Structure formats: C-alpha cells, structure tokens
TrEMBL record:
GO terms for molecular function: cysteine-type peptidase activity. It comes from Alistipes onderdonkii. Gene3D superfamilies: Peptidase C10, streptopain (3.90.70.50). This is C10 family peptidase. Transmembrane segments: none annotated. Pfam families: Peptidase_C10 (PF01640). GO terms for biological process: proteolysis. Coiled coil: none annotated.
Length: 240
C-alpha cells in the first residue's frame, strides 16, 4: 500500500530542536513518521500540506537534489504532525523523540479522521479488516520495559504450506495444511531492508523480513529490535 519509505532523519527532522544529547536536530520520532505516512497515503486532510510537493521527495536521491521547496514542505509536514501528536524531544534526557499511540489516535481524530479507535493488544482480525478497507494500520509495541517503536502495517498475506507424509517413495499417509498470516511492515527507518513481511505478531527486526520459505521463531522481546508485547493498534475509517 505505502509507496513512501520515510524515516526520522533529515529532511523530516529539520524543523526539530537541537538537543544536547545529539548536538544535532532531534529525530522526528517514530509516531510522527508512522502517522505522516498514513496521512500521506490518504492525502488527508486535503489542505493539510502540499501533498503533491511532499511526494516529490525521493529518499534515494542526495538530500540537496530534492529541491529546497520539497525539503521545506516535508520538514513542515513532519513538524506539524509531531506537534499534533504532542511528541517530546530528548525524552528524559535520552535524546529520543517520544509520543504514544493514544496521542496518535487523538490527533487523527482531531484532524478529521472518523471512527478512530485504539485497540489494546494484538488483533490480527482487526488489522486485516482495516487493510481490506484500504487503510494502513498504525501499530506500536515494546521490546523492553523502556523501549518501544511505532510503525505501519500496510498489507498482509495468507501463506499456505502443504505438508505431505509418505510411507516409502509413493504411499501417501496424510496431508496437512498449515496456514500462517504474514503482515507487511514499514518501519519508518532509513534501513529500508527491514521493511517487508513478518509473521503476524512476531516482529523481530534483527532477523529481518521473512522469505516465506519458513516461519520465523516466535521470541519474546529482549532488546530494542524485537517488538512482541504491549501492542497498541490505531484504526480509523477511510477518509472521503
């Protein structure tokens, strides 16, 4: 669904304050980028920014090749979304930019998205239903007690694996069908290699996306790259 591969660095952070921890601009924040990519997908609200100008930004080009008017519009969009989501820069002196799914949900509601809901826990059916309605899904989760991330799920794939058991070379004993749901994740990172399909509810970015020839092991979050608990999902109606 998403064609954007946005991240927290420049130009998205260029209107953010310079923090003592970073001695450079604070990162735009994962909530900011997730929400901004969803808004850009729908290009709603229509007059929130110059969407056509924003979509001229190409992250694969050198920054200066994008044109100053494009960079300025992207930076302004990011800053406005961050303000709406009430992000906190240099959160508790960490140098990180922080917000919550609840604030993201409130912001989407305030700018005109109807039917906004925050769902506690992970619900694959809710995710699939929202995607079927042409709406990318905002999701947040924790990897440890003090580190979380927000990203976008923008697709899913039902993977069917047929397992046949034989007695000898030709005698078929049984056939089992194993169904597995994979969801497509846009992480909002400059490392776009992490974007791709992950086994539903198993978001271990250390291993990267699945190749669909096997299932990733389900492991509980133990560091900053494995997001598997304290899930929060934000859904909404497709804007008209």
């Amino acid at each position: 669904m998403l064609t954007t591969q946005w991240h927290q660095g420049a130009p998205f952070k260029l209107r953010f304050p310079i923090t003592a921890s970073w001695t450079i601009w604070a990162p735009a924040g994962c909530v900011t980028i997730a929400v901004a990519q969803i808004m850009n997908y729908h290009q709603f609200p229509r007059n929130y920014c110059d969407w056509s100008l924003v979509n001229q930004y190409n992250p694969n080009d050198p920054l200066e090749d994008n044109g100053q008017d494009v960079l300025d519009e992207v930076a302004l969009l990011s800053k406005k979304v961050a303000g709406g989501c009430r992000v906190e820069c240099n959160f508790f002196g960490s140098g990180e930019t922080f917000s919550t799914p609840a604030k993201a949900k409130r912001f989407l509601r305030d700018v005109g998205y109807t039917g906004t809901e925050k769902h506690l826990g992970y619900d694959a059916d809710v995710i699939k239903k929202t995607l079927d309605n042409d709406c990318p899904v905002f999701i947040g989760a924790l990897a440890s007690s003090n580190h979380g991330h927000a990203w976008v799920i923008d697709g899913y794939l039902n993977y069917e694996n047929i397992i046949k058991t034989y007695n000898g070379p030709t005698t078929l004993l049984k056939t089992n069908t194993v169904n597995k749901l994979f969801v497509h994740c846009n992480w909002g990172w400059q490392d776009t290699d992490k974007n791709g399909y992950y086994a539903s509810k198993v978001f271990d970015t250390r291993k990267g996306p699945a190749d669909l020839n096997g299932y990733p092991a389900a492991t509980r979050g133990v560091n900053t790259k494995n997001y598997t608990w304290w899930f929060r999902i934000v859904t909404y109606n497709k804007p008209r």
